[in-house]
Design goal:
It contains 29 helices and 31 strands. It is an alpha+beta fold. The chain is elongated, with a radius of gyration of 49 Å. The protein starts with a helix and ends with a helix.
Length: 784
């Protein structure tokens, strides 16, 4: 057998095995473990062995266990146990990350030592004519007869002690010899002696008459118990090792110094579609190129004693598999051999590839993600530096995406983003890179541009292709794109600044009407710095009482008195002075501060109402509600809480909502407006006429007042269109039984026109500029 002929080689192979192994004899409770097992288990060795000892190996030999290693880290393993007569062998395979084992494994078990004794042959002499047998004392001792025991000198004294399992075979052999059918007699058999089973070897030579009749037979017996048990143990060890190696879920081999295989297990043979690899080399089983990699690895083993590589192999079935190959040097009879273990890491590689894709690509669009974008940009910038070329970076933000996503749902939004990715990618060159940073933000990197005007051509193509309606299941999506462009190295040589520049240019495009592109210019940085400064200052403006309210009176021309006020916020900036809401409200909305500021304004207005109520005044104060506040789920609760805290009459608080936002979010906001109306808080539609209200939709709303936008008042009575529009708004309000207020009245002609058409509530500079808080009560007293 291979085991017998290459005993040391196989022992060395096992000694170098890199997986945790254990062995337990059937009649023993103690486990024998190798160093890899001890290194793996550490302080948790007892717990692991206890878990193994509780496994039922009668029905299977493979178990999936979670074991804690020496670092108390829970490891998923396959534990293989092979049950044999003498006990059980096992190996633990770490399947949590399927990497190479830490250390080579020690011996599966020590070989049974072959016992040998000094000469212990015993003589026997059998007279076949008289049937008498003479046994030497050593013979008697071997078969378990003491020197004081009297035994009959007949052959049955020996035969009776032969183990029944062997008796028939031995007697047939003896009969065949004595009858001349065989040329010799020599047998090994078991006997029971002194309560123990012993193995003996018996041989004899007979003397025959001329007629062929045997007359005398003389021979020897020898106690071969130690030798026989050692041989049996050796055979069992061979069988156990063979069973273990052929069921091992890894490839194992030994090669000579010339690269020829002298041993390979079944797993390794099947990998290459062979019954055996003995006598073959890597050149015989691998494609050219693949074998060279392994040949070089063999050379490193000869030089350094060990080598570890990762290698891809195409199996005999055409499958591509990845292996960690651990090779080591074996010495025997002054010769060098190479042993190795092939551990399959294909599943691990697939997981790594998947994780790598998740880490670098957007799962929705399959485009490079933010991380991959940064890596690609860095690579192309380095290339441009070397080649003295230009790179264009484009930031793309989708216009109207949020409305589609919020209105139709995220499923539709996802379909839209996938179509956007497809369209943008479709108009780019192969060397250009489009990425999705997240949400509705995309980037495009144009490599090696010859003309700085080229990005504008690409940007316009992007705008045009995204302006085409997008089919979304049963709906059509209408979006646009705002594109910002920055050029390397013209705008900057710094990568982070290049990204900021493209982002600034994109925001410039968005604020200048959307669906356009803009190149980065230096003044954008100044604007951005100012915006950043104001954003940071605005965060502390509430706590520093820098946000104040001015109150513009609303007059009732029939009653000839002021009846209410509109609260207008101003920012008293310590550096820039009074800042109008037109300038800082967009900053507040972009930075997420608008909800907090809006709540603060409502509170200030309610405190002012409380002061007016203390003087016995019955005036209302109207507060503008931003779109951000209306889309928050807690506006209703927030307003009710402030009203309750300040203790005002809720009828004195009025809310104003712009027509355009209200119409775009009618279902979302009307519920809140209706609930607030129930407690006495009315809502007016501000800037009416600038949106797209319809009579049918207005009828359903819980509003109480329309405010004519200042843009329609400015050119009255000279502009015929404004006159017609204003008359229609007044008529519409009367039909719906709503109050009507004209904003921005600045001339007597405007006042008279509106008064004649039935609009009695007006505000504007003709009557009063917005008033600071301390002038409010004196003004009321004067105009009451």
């Amino acid at each position: 057998m291979l085991f017998a002929t290459n005993n040391l080689l196989l022992e060395s192979l096992i000694e170098q095995f890199p997986l945790p192994m254990f062995y337990k004899k059937s009649n023993k409770s103690k486990f024998i473990t190798n160093k890899s097992f001890d290194n793996f288990a550490g302080k948790n060795k007892k717990q692991i062995l206890k878990a193994i000892s509780q496994l039922n190996i009668s029905t299977k030999n493979k178990f999936e266990l979670k074991l804690k290693n020496e670092l108390d880290k829970e490891i998923n393993t396959y534990t293989y146990i092979i049950n044999v007569d003498e006990g059980s062998f096992g190996v633990i395979v770490d399947i949590s990350d399927q990497i190479e084992a830490k250390k080579a494994i020690h011996a599966l078990k020590e070989r049974y030592e072959i016992a040998s004794s000094s000469s212990n042959e015993a003589l026997w002499d059998w007279d076949l004519l008289t049937k008498e047998v003479k046994f030497s004392d050593r013979f008697k001792q071997i078969i378990g007869i003491s020197h004081t025991t009297v035994v009959k000198p007949i052959i049955e004294t020996w035969i009776e002690r032969i183990d029944p399992r062997d008796k028939n075979r031995v007697l047939k052999s003896l009969e065949a010899y004595l009858s001349g059918k065989s040329e010799s007699f020599k047998q090994e058999h078991r006997i029971r002696a002194n309560g123990k089973t012993k193995w003996i070897s018996i041989s004899g030579k007979a003397t025959f008459e001329k007629s062929g009749r045997p007359v005398r037979m003389t021979g020897f017996i020898k106690d071969i118990t130690d030798i026989k048990e050692a041989q049996i143990a050796l055979k069992e060890s061979q069988e156990q090792f063979s069973l273990f190696m052929n069921n091992l879920p890894a490839g194992a081999f030994i090669k000579d110094e010339d690269g020829n295989f002298i041993f390979s297990n079944i797993y390794f043979n099947k990998l290459f579609g062979k019954k055996t690899l003995e006598g073959l080399s890597c050149k015989d089983i691998l494609e050219k190129g693949e074998d060279e990699i392994l040949t070089q690895s063999d050379k490193r083993v000869i030089e350094k004693g060990v080598d570890l590589i990762e290698h891809k192999i195409t199996t005999s079935k055409g499958e591509e598999k990845y292996f960690n190959i651990h090779k080591f040097l074996i010495y025997k009879d002054d010769k060098k051999y190479i042993g190795g273990i092939y551990s399959d890491i294909t599943s691990q590689k697939k997981v790594q590839d998947k994780l790598n894709r998740l880490a670098h690509f957007d799962t929705l669009t399959a485009l490079p993600n933010r991380m991959m974008f940064h890596n690609s940009l860095k690579t192309l910038i380095s290339k441009a530096n070397r080649n003295n070329t230009k790179v264009a970076l484009m930031f793309i933000d989708l216009d109207n995406f949020k409305m589609i996503n919020d209105t139709l749902g995220h499923d539709y939004g996802d379909l839209l983003l996938q179509e956007v990715a497809k369209r943008v990618k479709g108009i780019l060159r192969a060397e250009d890179i489009v990425s999705r940073l997240g949400g509705d933000e995309f980037t495009v990197i144009l490599d090696d541009i010859k003309d700085v005007s080229y990005p504008s051509i690409v940007a316009q193509k992007i705008i045009d292709t995204l302006s085409t309606p997008i089919k979304l299941k049963d709906e059509m999506g209408y979006i646009g794109a705002s594109v910002g462009i920055s050029i390397f190295p013209d705008d900057t040589v710094n990568i982070e600044q290049l990204i900021k520049n493209a982002d600034l240019a994109m925001y410039k495009a968005k604020h200048e009407g959307k669906n356009v592109y803009r190149y980065f210019t230096e003044d954008m940085t100044a604007d951005a710095n100012e915006k950043l400064e104001l954003t940071n200052n605005l965060r502390n403006a509430i706590n520093k009482d820098e946000l104040i309210i001015y109150y513009q009176p609303i007059f009732d021309l029939e009653e000839k008195k002021v009846v209410s006020f509109e609260a207008l916020i101003r920012w008293e900036h310590p550096k820039y002075g009074i800042i109008s809401p037109e300038h800082f409200v967009p900053i507040a909305e972009d930075s997420g501060l608008m909800v907090k500021i809006g709540k603060h304004i409502i509170k200030l207005a309610c405190l002012q109402i409380k002061e007016l109520e203390a003087f016995g005044f019955d005036h209302k104060i109207a507060v503008n509600i931003s779109s951000k506040q209306l889309t928050q789920n807690h506006l209703e609760e927030s307003v009710k809480a402030i009203v309750s805290q300040t203790g005002i009459d809720p009828r004195h608080l009025e809310l104003e909502v712009t027509e355009s936002f209200l119409m775009d979010n009618i279902e979302e906001t009307d519920k809140t407006i209706a609930n607030l109306k129930k407690i006495g808080i009315n809502t007016a539609i501000d800037d009416f006429g600038t949106g797209y209200s319809s009579l049918s939709r207005l009828k359903k709303l819980s509003v109480s007042k329309l405010k004519i936008d200042k843009s329609f008042i400015d050119d009255i009575p000279d502009d015929e269109d404004d006159i017609v529009i204003t008359q229609m708004i007044i008529s519409l309000a009367k039909q719906l039984n709503l109050e009507i207020v004209a904003e921005g009245v600045e001339t007597k002609e405007q006042m008279e026109f509106l008064k004649q058409r039935g609009c009695k509530l007006m505000q504007g500079y003709l009557f009063s500029q917005p008033l600071p808080k301390d002038q409010l009560i004196p003004f009321i007293k004067k105009h009451s």
